[in-house]
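Hi Y.,

Following your request, here is the sequence exactly as I used it, all 67 residues.
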Amino acid sequence: MEFKLISIASIIAFYGCYFVKMFHQKKQGIQTDQIGKNKVGFVKFVEITMKIAAILVFIAGLSSIFF
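Below is the corresponding structure, written out as C-alpha cells. Let me know if you'd prefer a different format.
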C-alpha cells in the first residue's frame, strides 16, 4: 500500500509541475506543446505517433500502480 501511495504522489508531482509550467508559459504567450504542429508528411506522422505513445505510457504507468 505504501508503494502505491508513493507512486501516485510521484506521478501527481511530476505531471503537476509539467502542467503548472505549461499554463504559466501560456500566460506569457509561449506555446509549450509543439509536437506535430506545422509539420507535414512523415515527420508529422512520427511526431503524432510519439505523442500517442507518451500518452499510452502514462496510462500504462497509472494502470500498473492499481493492478
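The chain has a mean pLDDT of 90.

Thanks again,
Q.
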